[in-house]
Amino acid sequence: MLAQMSERLFIGAMSGTSADGVDAALVAVNGSGLTMTARLLHHCHKPYNATLREMIFAVRSGGKIDLADLAKLARDISLVYAETVRGLIAQANVSPGQITAIAAHGQTLFHDPPLTIQWFDPSLLAWETGCCVVSDFRRADCAAGGQGAPLVPFADYILFRHPTKNRVLLNIGGIANLTYLRAGGSIDEVIAFDTGPGNCISDWICRTYGPFGLSWDVDGQGAAHGRAVIEIAGRYLDEPYFKLPPPKSTDTLAMIRPFELAADACGTMPLNDLLATAARITGQTIGQGIQDLHREGELELIVSGGGIHNKAIMGWLRSYVDSAVTIHKVRRFRIPADAKEAVAFALLGAATMDGVPSNVPSVTGASRGVVLGSVTPRISR
């Protein structure tokens, strides 16, 4: 069954800092603002090809790029978004005219607030899909003095708040971020921030030192066969970022560079030891972030993102959280782990179309709530 008469259909489309491709979620939304409810109807993923992925990483790592290549990069990213959305619409057996809007995040190339770039061509997506597009979600919050991130706490509050249960929503992508929802709390009490690296260090190790074609540590198998190097971890955790209070956000390059320097200072070592060290750092920084928020009593930790498939990261995480913390994968709530952020962007898109502020100033540090995103109208072909 698709949307009921009172519901609207939104597509959330997301490509994260891991640059593995585009996730798209078709979501039926009822209501508006904080009273919204959402049902995930379909989800699909379209990977970037190797050439596109390598170009994204080259730009993100600070490499120079010609303006023509930069323009082509936006087009290539947007065409993958379009192909993903068209496939999703076909799977769901709906027409573009039934979609209220696509909420598309674009590909983050740089994030150092107040400077941020999510590279993408919304007009091309509107043309290729025949749908209205909402994009460029971070800049309005940055203009209001915020970090422009994290953005998903608005959706986390709508989807997961509970009158009697304290909950932390954790997403482990390239960067790991968490949202703390106090039992019965208001949205003004939400706390969220980037804890630090998610998969980004592990992915960088594989791209830099691994055999040809190894883009990530599948299921954490390499890390499981390595030994975490305490000296590297210790040097890394001395980084000032981990001592900053929220609101705070970071980017993959800012998290990778200190690891590279710490590893270089310790000399050559086996690939698997580097992967084990990266997994420990991720688990430890997430665990510390949770402990800083909630030191006593029961807590539900609801995890999503590609990092949940890395058994080494998840093992370290369990060792760094209190025994009173119960860990659930988000699929328990009928949302696949890789679809959660796409669902969140569908809700952000609905808020934009309704003229409802969807940044959370207590999270981003913005001076006030603002409507996020820019709207590109539907283009009929």
Question: Could you provide a short overview of the structure?
Answer:
The chain contains 13 helices and twelve strands.
Question: Could you explain how this protein is built, in words?
Answer:
By secondary structure, the chain is of the alpha/beta class. Helices cover 39% and strands 22% of the residues. The protein has 13 helices and 12 strands. Helix 6 packs antiparallel against helix 10 and helix 8 (230-237) crosses helix 9. 53% of the residues are buried.
Global structural class: alpha/beta
Portion in strands: 15-25%
Please give the oligomerization state of what you see: single chain
Give the overall form.
Answer: globular
Q: Helical element count?
A: 13
Kindly report how far apart the N and C termini lie. Answer: 29 Å
- The helix/strand order is EEEHHEEHEHHEEEHHHHHEHEHHE
**Low-confidence residue ranges:** 1-5
Radius of gyration: 20 Å
How would a crystallographer describe the biggest sheet? 7 strands, mixed
Helical content class: 25-40%
The whole-number mean of residue pLDDT values reads 93
Q: How many beta-strand elements? A: 12
What's the arrangement of secondary structure elements?
Elements: E1 8-15, E2 21-30, E3 37-47, H1 50-60, H2 67-92, E4 99-112, E5 115-119, H3 122-129, E6 133-135, H4 139-143, H5 153-160, E7 167-172, E8 175-181, E9 191-197, H6 200-209, H7 221-224, H8 230-237, H9 252-266, H10 271-293, E10 299-304, H11 311-320, E11 325-329, H12 340-354, H13 361-364, E12 374-376
Parallel strand pairs: 1-4, 4-6, 7-10, 10-11
Antiparallel strand pairs: 1-2, 2-3, 4-5, 6-12, 7-8, 8-9
